[in-house]
Amino acid sequence: MSVFSDSYLAANASNLPPEAIPMLRQRLENLTESQKAYVLSADLKNPTTALIFSIFFGYLGVDRFYIGHIGLGVAKLLLSWMTLGLWPLIDWFLIMGATRQTNLENLNHAINAATMFHP
Length: 119
Known about the structure:
- 71% of the residues lie in helices and 0% in strands.
- Helix 1 runs antiparallel to helix 2 (21-29), helix 3 (33-40) packs antiparallel against helix 7 and helix 4 (47-57) packs antiparallel against helix 7.
- With 119 residues, the protein is mostly helical.
- The chain has one domain.
- The relative contact order is 0.18.
- It is elongated.
- It is found in: Membrane.
């Protein structure tokens, strides 16, 4: 067992999909010391913050901009009025899962970059 993988996952478990934790633990345990810096630099967003943005500024697409979905943020900004507020309302239920999924993708990219450039 790796102290790094356990502590990293303990600190970031709420920001990641629960079903991905075992796979991530295995990938993190195989990293060398120099590769861990890449993982620590991965930009993970807080799902609760995304939900707060969605509730208060969802009609402006701020929640989607926050998690890095620029295209959806622009579309939501321009089209929220056409859905009569339905799109922002639906996003209240989807944004936390989307944030966790985006965080998983960002972390996987960081692990891949670490293993590619620092074998």
